[in-house]
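Dear support,

I submitted the protein below through the web form. The confirmation email said the job was done, but the results page showed an empty box. After a refresh the structure appeared. I'm attaching both so you can tell me whether what I see now is the final result or a partial one.
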Amino acid sequence: MSENILGVLGGMGPLASAHFMVRLTQLTQAARDQDHIPTVLWSDPRVPDRTQGKLSGGADPLPFLQRGVRGLRAAGCGAIAIPCNTAHGWYDQLAAEGLPILHIVEAAAADLRQVAPTGTIGVMGTAATLRMRLYQNRLEALGWTCIIPDDAEMARLVSPAIAHVKANRVSEAYAPLAEAALNLATRGAQAVVLGCTEIPLGIQAGPWQTLGVPLVDTIDALARAAIAWAKP
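What the results page shows now:
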């Protein structure tokens, strides 16, 4: 039965991975406990900051991430979901550990096709996610044109909002994230991908339904991909 157990490599941050578990449960069609997906959550907040590791010469997160993958494999997991976008910058090294890893960008692309099959889309994320072009390269290869916040918007709006969520000041994140999303819509984005798992938590702390632009929640997208893997 090990192939039916989902591993979740989390703690990046803790609230995002906990919310992923909630959404995985809520999105699963189930009438009783036994209908849900067997899951092992490895939530290790000690993983060094991924953005600093990529952009600022910070401590390397890879050994921590590899330890988590190996722990999930030892627990009998058959595939892994990582509810942290920036951690996918080490996707190839983690996939080399031998377990299938559900790629969050591919999951987001599947959701994006439902709201904006073609055209220009906005991508919000950490500075490292955007600098590594985790979304831009994959989505542009699939036919979309990607636009992202500029450096000033990242410094004034997006990065501080992500920090607010990590500090459990979630309500303070809504206004700057909403402003950044609307700026992308003004520049022509037909939808906005929330490409950091803290961003959906922040933007959903306010009246996001009134923004007037479709939003792709990467936590929900990854949860749906996990359900599709577990219940094909």
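Response: this is the final, complete result; the empty box was a page-load delay. The beta strands are 6-10, 39-43, 79-81, 101-102, 120-124, 145-147, 192-194, 215-217.
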